[in-house]
Amino acid sequence: MSELRETAMSSKAWPFEEARRLLKRYRQGAPEKGYVLFETGYGPSGLPHIGTFGEVARTTMVKRAFEALSDIPTKLICFSDDLDGMRKVPSNVPNPDKLEGYLQCPLTTVPDPFGEYPSFGEYNNAMLRRFLDTFGFEYEFYSARDFYRSGQFDEILKRAVDRYDDIMAIMLKSLREERQQTYSIFLPIHPETGRVLYVPMKKVCAETYTVTFDDEDGKEWMLPVTGGNVKLQWKPDFGARWAALGVDFEMYGKEHATNEKIYDSICRALGGRAPEHFSYELFLDENGQKISKSSGNGVSIDEWLTYAPTESLAYFMYQKPKTAKRMHFDVIPKAYDEYHQQLRAYPGQELKAQLNNPVWHIHGGNVPESTLMVPFAMLLNLASVSGAEDKEALWGFIRRYAPEATAETHPDLDQAAGFAVRYFNDFVKPTRQHRAPTDQEREALEALKAALMAYDGPVEDEALQSVVYAIGRERFDPMRGWFTALYEVLLGASQGPRFGGFIALYGVPETIALIEKALAGKLA
Fold it and tell me: Are the C-beta atoms of 23 and 272 separated by less than 8 Å?
């Protein structure tokens, strides 16, 4: 056994814990299908949101961890439920009134409100695939419409007819008495209107594999369950899909956790083996509400990528997946800087620590070097005090701080400078609020100004931090009050960077001038 595999066998990183649990399924070797199958689901009822990306990213992390533990081949599929009926019109699309007439129609027959694809479902599928492709995920895309219509699902659908009573018994236990009277695992698609119908079955025939029902107008129809004429209700569909494809691992949000036993039971009733599961906590918006595709609250994939790279988003997804996470714009700078902190730490770590480092899981062990020598938070503060309108303005300070750095030699830094200016102008500048110093703070700022004017030491982070610290130590207890004053008075923020590092980057004369502006009341 290689050192990597041996060390991974005891790693406490959550992807390795999940991978080891999955490995126990196949102690004797590869399954009959020849690979271990990971699946993620996508409901294209609205524009893809960041939670969808998180599910694929986290599943990929478990897949990579499994590949480090075993030689059994793996496959990841992303399955889109695009045959589901549109239950309500999303609020975040153009001309939503034009979609009102397509309620309960499969998403792949609803017109694309953006006018780019044959249907709304196909538009949302393309939006998802575009991002997954950009990020470099290795996956196969499955469409429910194609899966049902192509015949790939026919064998399982026939088996569902054969075992209809058994599956209905599983489902009826979970339903209210009123719902039990009209429930069927099958949802016929009306031959004329194209709508997905929620109607009781008059007959389910195992000889002809057909269902008979009355539509809303009382007209009787008989349809084959195969060929995309009928789809399964969403809970039976979960278990049936697992049985049809031989899914070995699927994760989902905690809202599905209560249905896990139902999914598993249906999968087994159809002759399949239930997969391993992982239930993650939900993403919340700034108000603590669940992020929703249809309402468009929270941060979208494209919005995150406007202000930070994909790796920072993957880092955010890695952290504590079983804890509810507030997903708003203010989490971006922290995730950005912490990701690069882990990158810088990685080369000096022993293998055990590297396997516990999020960047191993983000990059599948092929971890790049960080060239972000100035933290993103520091660049934001620099953009704030300098009034930078583009990244070239920030590079003017960076070149003086680190003459050897260029956009070519430090691409992470160049990228971060552009993101920082954009983030500052959109989020920091509109809410920035300087305050006037108190008498105690004014005296301390005068002392700092005098110390900097007399300073002739190296323009380096630690040396200048000592100067700042010495001023505060004599005047503030606790010292936190001094640094809060620096941030609120000089930067217009409630928190900020190590101030010595900020001075080194911004410049001693420029910092003196900034203090003078604050003392003269020109900032507040």
Answer: no
Adjacent-strand bridge partners of 186: 232
**Model confidence over 112-127: pLDDT tens digits?**
999 999 999 999 899 8
- Strand residue runs (E) in 52-206: 74-80, 140-143, 186-188, 201-205
212 neighbors 100 (Cβ within 8 angstroms) = no
Contact 66/23 with Cβ under 8 angstroms?
A: yes
Element of type H or E holding 385: helix 376-386
8 A C-beta contact, residue 524 and residue 435: yes
Which residues sit opposite 26 in a β-bridge? none
Rounded to an integer, what distance in angstroms lies between the CA atom of residue 123 and that of residue 451? Answer: 61
**Model pLDDT for residues 64-98, shown as the tens digit of each residue:** 999 999 999 999 999 999 999 999 988 778 888 88
What is the per-residue burial (b if ≥16 Cβ within 10 Å, else e) of 66-88? bbbbbebebbbbbbbbbbbbbee
How many angstroms separate the first and last alpha carbons of the chain?
64
How much of the chain is in helix, strand and coil states, percent to nearest 5? 50, 10, 40
CA angle 393, 399, 401 (to 5 degrees): 110
Tell me the backbone φ, ψ of residue 418, rounded to 5 degrees: -65, -45
Cβ-contact 236, 266 below 8 angstroms? yes
Beta-strand (E) ranges in 363-437?
Answer: none
> What are the distances in angstroms from CA 286 to CA 92, 275, 295, 299?
18, 34, 14, 9
Q: Please report the DSSP string for 460-489 in residue order.
A: -HHHHHHHHHHHHHTT-SSTHHHHHHIIII
| The listed CATH number (3.40.50, 1.10.510, 1.10.10, 1.20.144) that belongs to domain 439-519 | 1.10.10
The residues spanned by each domain of the chain are 285-363, 376-428, 439-519
3-state secondary structure 214-227: ECCCCCEEEEECCC
Section 410-416 average pLDDT = 96
CB 144 within 8 A of CB 81: yes
Q: Are the CB atoms for 401 and 427 separated by under 8 Å?
A: no
Residue 250 host element (H or E)? strand 249-253
Chain segment 208-235, per-residue pLDDT in tens: 999 999 999 999 999 999 999 999 999 9
- Residue 352: closest CA among 83, 1, 2, 9: 9
326: which strand partners?
284
Provide the 3-class DSSP secondary structure of residue 31.
coil
